Amino acid sequence: MNEENMEILANIRYMKVTRVIENNVQNHKEEEHVITLTTNGIETSCDTFSLTEVLDISFRDFSQQLGLLYLHTTKGMYSYTVRINPQMFMKKFKEVKEWKKNGTNSL
Questions:
Q1: pLDDT of residue 62
Q2: What is the dihedral of CA 94, 97, 102, 105, to 10 degrees?
Q3: What is the DSSP letter of 79?
Q4: Average pLDDT for consecutive 10-residue bins of the chain (107 residues)?
């Protein structure tokens, strides 16, 4: 993604759980990563999306402690396990999309 004029607007932490088998024993390894919303798009530890590629963001609680944040993109749907409600992140994303659509000078 182009670094020029890129401003970080919001971050949210997500978890990535991998299964590792060692000595015939399955273990779960939990890693914490960050999704970053910038004026140019959304970046995760594995993927980068421009604002035009991200069509929508949604969220689904599946327990009191965890939920899934979904990025609906032109490349498909990507899900991220989050521990907090991402409403503020989603609100900021919608503001940025509207700002880019209308071509206003400031957020």
A1: 86
A2: 100
A3: E
A4: 72 92 89 94 94 95 90 96 94 90 67
DSSP code for 88: H
E-strand spans in 1-107?
8-22, 25-38, 41-43, 48-50, 54-61, 67-73, 76-82
The CA radius of gyration of the chain, in Å to the nearest whole number, is: 16
Give the other-Cβ count within 10 Å of 54's Cβ: 20
Asked if 44 and 33 count as a contact pair (C-beta separation under 8 A), the reply is yes
What values do phi and psi take at 101, rounded to 5? Answer: -65, -45
Sign for the CA dihedral angle at 93, 97, 99, 100 comes to positive
Burial environment of residue 69 by CB neighbours within 10 A (0 to 12, 13 to 18, 19 or more):
buried
What pLDDT does residue 65 have?
Answer: 85
State how far the Cα of 27 lies from the Cα of 7, in Å rounded to an integer: 38
pLDDT given at position 4: 56
DSSP state of 95: H
